[in-house]
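User: Fold this; tokens only.

Assistant: Input:
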Amino acid sequence: MLSPAAVILDFDGVMAQTSRMKLELLMTVARECGVSGLVELAEALTGSLAGMDRFSVGAWIAERDDLVTQDHFASHYSNALADRMLSAEMCDGLDEFVVGLVQRGVPVAVVSLAPADEIRSWLRAVGIDEHLFISIRGLESGDKLTNTRSVVSELEFAPSRIVSVGDSPTDGDVAAVVGLAFIRVRSATGDLFRWEREPSLTVNSLADLIWQLR
């Protein structure tokens, strides 16, 4: 069993069932924007762009398509996502997992490539108190590596005592760079990604992880 001093959660696919929805929406928006090379984009979204944010995807597209700018793609995607985000269901075991850790005095933070305001709005929609989390960091405050390092610095624990929980290879890579243990939660899109780094533990959901963290 693991006994972390703190836990850092990814949002998409770990807290909210949004991974497949966002992956499909990226392709839909690309099609609506008239992006050429949709096959190449689909391959990149499960490879080099796996788990990347809307601006990174937009930049990738803009480098290959003169008719689509990064900002136009990201704006179109954000508008389309706003109509769907609040209806996303909670991942199995999230509320029990977070409350259980907090009751034991284990701080929980969120580091995501989704904007923090989107995360807070979703938490309110599903009835989870955002104040259970010591920090919620999103796209607007930096990339995932920068935000993870900032949270680790705030926690003041040795990185080896902190567990990162995510569903994409990017999450695992960031955890490795910072020196955190990484737990992979299997998600609808996670199995599509190419995993080159072995996680410390793989679970199907946070509900399965509750009994692993003691």
